[in-house]
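[job 4471] stage=fold_predict status=RUNNING
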Amino acid sequence: MKIAIAILNWNGVALLERYLPFVVDYSKEAAIYVIDNASTDGSVDFIKKHYPQIGLIQNDSNGGFAKGYNEGLKHIDADVFCLLNSDVEVTQNWLAPIAATFSEVENAAIIQPKILDLMRPQYFEYAGAAGGFIDKLGYPFCRGRIFQSLEEDTGQYNDRQQIFWATGACLFIKKDVFWELDGFDEAYFAHQEEVDLCWRAQNKGHAVYYVGESHVYHLGGSTLSNMNPKKTFLNFRNSLFTITKNLPRRRAFTIIAARLLLDGVAALRFIFQLKFKHCFAILRAHISFYRHFRGMYAKREKANFILKYYAVKSIVWSHFVNEVKNFNNLVKD
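[job 4471] inference complete, writing structure tokens
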């Protein structure tokens, strides 16, 4: 199996200096590429000077995560793409369990490893943790991370488990599946495009897996922190995009109506916390969603829709009302 590791970079020379050596040292069985989104900080010169053995692909502009990968991956030939954030520290033998799962599980099309926090290695990291799930209203969460509550890694997720979505921080996907899906939806720009990709893959009969035997450490927040208003805008808007595209029409419209109410509650919560920029970000997210609704609706998959896609009915209720902070304490539906 030919694996190609593709690291998307935009003005991240400091991250490349720190984390690229681990990728080179611990990924001898894979080809390594850096896809540069028109950086102006010397990233390209750094790669050419210090890592001439690495494939360098230069995009003409910064089209964000989705377009950046769509354009860059056109120039890479492999059986499996590994989309790796530039702020991820990989570990010894991280690739072998992933390759084994692709070989042993016939319908495994997308895989993520265990994602731990680089600053607190004993804890799971926000972006992906031990595999992504979703509730009935389309809110994403993870094993090991529910909203801002992060679990300590005590080996409770050292398994191989089918999940609903894999994190874009470290996502392995079969090349043929990526192009069957026409890659990422570039309207997302960044954030939750991997949820959409995984959902579309499952609507076509593919499976998404988490492999706990492989683990990496993620710095996180190097582009946008978890509580940046721009990230709030993208997460709320893009979640509505995904619901529109990947559910039967009646259910999609019902959930969007419910989300209008619940997102309003979230906005009020930000007001009480004096986080007014985040409240405004939710308002802008809905305005942007309605402006783009017709285009999103036109992208709806023609394949059979998954009806039992969710792990719980409401992660919002479970976490904020029932105060559940641990995935294994959730009452599964």
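[job 4471] summary: The chain has two domains: 3-218, 229-302.
[job 4471] exit 0
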